[in-house]
Amino acid sequence: MTRIPALVSLFLAASISTASEETVTFRSGPENVSAFLVKPDGPGPFPAVIVLHEWWGLDAWIKDQARALSKEGYAALALDLYRGKVTASQEEAHQLMMGTPIDRQTRDMKAAFAWLAARKDVVRTRMAALGFCMGGRNAFTLAIEEPTLAAAVIYYGAPPTDPISIAKIRAPMLGNFGGDDEGPSPAQAKAFEAVVKKAGRTFDLKVYPGAPHAFANPNNPWKGYRRDAANDAWMRTTAFLRHYLMAR
Fold this sequence. Notes:
Blueprint: H1 8-14, E1 19-28, E2 31-40, E3 46-52, H2 60-71, E4 75-79, H3 90-99, H4 102-117, E5 122-132, H5 134-145, E6 151-155, H6 163-167, E7 173-178, H7 186-198, E8 203-208, H8 227-246
Parallel strand pairs: 3-4, 3-5, 5-6, 6-7, 7-8
Antiparallel strand pairs: 1-2, 2-4
């Protein structure tokens, strides 16, 4: 791991202050899209992370992940891809996910990236994506669509399989996957790892034995939460982001 330079202390010092949070709105094509922004107090500028939600929508748990990132010294923007809709029903979550066009999700993420990059309190060259499940798939997509993305963290998100799309990825990636997950399976994650490493890209993959899908979320309705795996994955996540967003 690269030694953290003294400059990073400016970012880390911000993490001990109280955070400010707000709901923000910006344009995505012809529409308005909203997001939950939380960042350390102070003028910054801060490295930033776009947080991408599961199929439940922008719920309290996703907002808590943004708050946790702000404590690490980041401006965290949790994007609302469902236009305000949130659910705890699996059936409704499936309907919301399937009813939200992929191209609109991509457009919204690119709009969020551009909006963050234009802020004076954000370091535009140090922006990452972090996503869970559906959000993990979207983190892969943003890595494909935004060549200047500095890093991507994927929790059990379906990896891309199209060679042309994979070849566009420049950002280093970290993947946390469950050994007992069937969608995406460990085999899918390992196949993606082999392809990107052959191309000289970084994909730091860890598969947690005995962990099912959505193992990091304590609200997992399938009783699939695995505390030890979740804690280890979060430590990996924060170390990875620190390395690529701060220690450069």
